[in-house]
């Protein structure tokens, strides 16, 4: 890709951030709309879980395919296709006549969404080649998550109260169309130097793993953890995982290059992404239901209650990016893990949500943690990797986020549903949600401990060795052959 002027690079960053904005805004606005959707569509807790997890599940399953496809056929092409599908899916969601139709249309949205964020991150990585400039750009990217967390609940709540829950999907239409036109006009095409071959069996194994695991977790409270159906799907998930571990290393161009995980910082960033976004998914799910079902707040008021958390995320994300650029990822990761763990502990052990001041304190702490974690995850995932595999590396990080959010909603929703079987009302919800807040606390501790282990000198040395191995062509393999062909020509 040709070197762009500073102004053009900033414009490309802004266009990529627009795609992140509509995806993130859609998710945060949807959480506020869950009670209204449940009432209108006569849905259960599991039904509400599926409106979120059907989207994140498809997204997680296809992100790596989208990343490698974009590296192969062109990042701008795939990015524009994603904008078209996501915008179309949003329009269909607004017209959904039933819960089943809504879930199906959310899956259409997810197919488009899988082509947006990892591909946009790959475009950013290849546009901002200077490590410090790239870290700052990633900080801005993370700040958009904060903006969406601030605007999503308020905009979504206002629309739900005034127009209805279907209107939350209308917001995506003008932004998606504007991003499509600007991408066509200003974003240059780029692709990897060597095309990676498709891996259909690997893709099928990933879909089987994530789909079976999520189905087993969400449906287990109703069907029974020891039922034949749940055990069957759990067995499928285990078999798919074993298949990936055996099959992928044998391919020249695997869907998941397991050599990436020889890098301790990359492996750590993957686990941290799963943990942090599991905490976020569970936090938003429990918080939305508590504020509206227990406290009796309107959708708009519930959105306004989350503003302290979102404002801190919005403020901290770009600062975290600058801190990563100047000091590395260690300090932001320790801040993130500690703050998220304390926030979860306040809600788990001290019922912080039952007092307004203590609840806001927990919100601010969670925002401090989540606002600090995004930049080091993304920067660690793409830094040190060959630029030719930037799309795949970014897609692994994005996949980890979506897997985390899927599992967070699935596990914490299942725990809540099991606890709410008998008790009802305010006291029943608080008691049933307490195990969920302990899970959030555990996720924060995981971020803290793994962040400390994966950001030291030894961990950085494993990243350097991994990057060297990835850059070395295998004798007689596809990379060596294509290199020889270019040399002879």
TrEMBL record:
InterPro entries: EmrB-like (IPR004638), MFS (IPR011701), MFS_dom (IPR020846), MFS_trans_sf (IPR036259). SUPFAM superfamilies: MFS general substrate transporter. Pfam families: MFS_1 (PF07690). Residues 480-489 have a biased composition (Polar residues). It is found in: Cell membrane. It is a multi-pass membrane protein. The keyword Cell membrane applies. It comes from the Bacteria. The chain crosses the membrane at residues 47-66, 78-97, 103-125, 137-156, 168-188, 200-218, 230-247, 268-290, 302-319, 331-350, 362-382, 403-421, 436-455. Residues 469-489 are annotated as: Disordered. CDD domains: MFS_MMR_MDR_like. Keywords: Antibiotic resistance, Cell membrane, Membrane, Transmembrane, Transmembrane helix, Transport. Residues 12-459 form the Major facilitator superfamily (MFS) profile domain. Belongs to the major facilitator superfamily. EmrB family. This is MFS transporter. It comes from Streptomyces drozdowiczii. The lineage of its organism: Bacteria, Bacillati, Actinomycetota, Actinomycetes, Kitasatosporales.
């Amino acid at each position: 890709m040709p070197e762009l002027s500073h102004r053009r690079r900033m414009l490309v960053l802004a266009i990529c951030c627009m795609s992140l904005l509509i995806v993130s805004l859609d998710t945060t606005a949807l959480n506020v709309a869950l009670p209204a959707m449940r009432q209108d569509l006569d849905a259960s807790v599991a039904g509400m879980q599926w409106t979120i997890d059907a989207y994140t599940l498809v997204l997680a399953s296809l992100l790596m395919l989208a990343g490698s496809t974009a590296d192969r056929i062109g990042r701008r092409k795939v990015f524009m296709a994603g904008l078209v599908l996501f915008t179309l899916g949003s329009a269909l969601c607004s017209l959904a006549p039933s819960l089943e139709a809504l879930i199906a249309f959310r899956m259409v949205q997810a197919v488009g969404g899988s082509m947006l964020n990892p591909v946009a991150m790959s475009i950013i990585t290849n546009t901002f080649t200077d490590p410090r400039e790239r870290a700052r750009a990633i900080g801005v990217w993370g700040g958009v998550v904060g903006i969406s967390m601030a605007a999503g609940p308020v905009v979504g709540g206002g629309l739900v109260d005034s127009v209805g829950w279907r209107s939350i999907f209308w917001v995506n239409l003008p932004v998606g169309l504007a991003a499509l036109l600007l991408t066509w006009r200003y974003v240059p095409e780029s692709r990897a130097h060597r095309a990676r071959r498709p891996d259909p069996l690997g893709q099928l194994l990933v879909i089987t793993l994530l789909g079976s695991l999520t189905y087993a977790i969400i449906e287990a409270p109703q069907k029974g953890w020891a039922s034949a159906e749940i055990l069957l799907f759990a067995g499928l998930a285990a078999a798919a995982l074993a298949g990936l571990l055996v099959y992928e290393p044998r391919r020249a161009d695997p869907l998941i290059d397991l050599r990436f995980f020889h890098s301790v910082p990359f492996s750590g960033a993957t686990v941290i992404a799963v943990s942090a976004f599991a905490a976020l998914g569970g936090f938003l799910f429990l918080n939305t239901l508590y504020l509206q079902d227990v406290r009796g707040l309107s959708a708009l008021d519930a959105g306004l209650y989350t503003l302290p958390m979102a404002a801190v995320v919005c403020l901290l994300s770009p600062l975290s990016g600058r801190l990563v650029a100047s000091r590395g990822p260690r300090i932001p990761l320790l801040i993130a893990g500690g703050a998220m763990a304390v926030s979860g502990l306040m809600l788990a052990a001290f019922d912080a949500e039952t007092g307004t001041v203590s609840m806001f304190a927990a919100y601010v702490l969670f925002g401090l943690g989540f606002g600090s974690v995004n930049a080091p995850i993304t920067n660690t995932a793409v830094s040190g990797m060959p630029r030719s595999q930037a799309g795949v590396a970014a897609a692994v990080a994005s996949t980890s986020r979506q897997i985390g959010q899927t599992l967070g909603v699935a596990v914490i929703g299942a725990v809540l549903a099991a606890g709410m079987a008998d008790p009802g009302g305010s006291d029943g919800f608080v008691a049933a949600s307490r195990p969920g807040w302990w899970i959030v606390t555990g996720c924060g501790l995981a971020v803290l401990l793994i962040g400390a282990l994966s950001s030291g000198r030894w961990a950085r040395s494993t990243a350097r060795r991994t990057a060297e191995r990835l850059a070395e062509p295998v004798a007689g393999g596809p990379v060596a052959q294509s290199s020889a062909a270019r040399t002879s020509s």
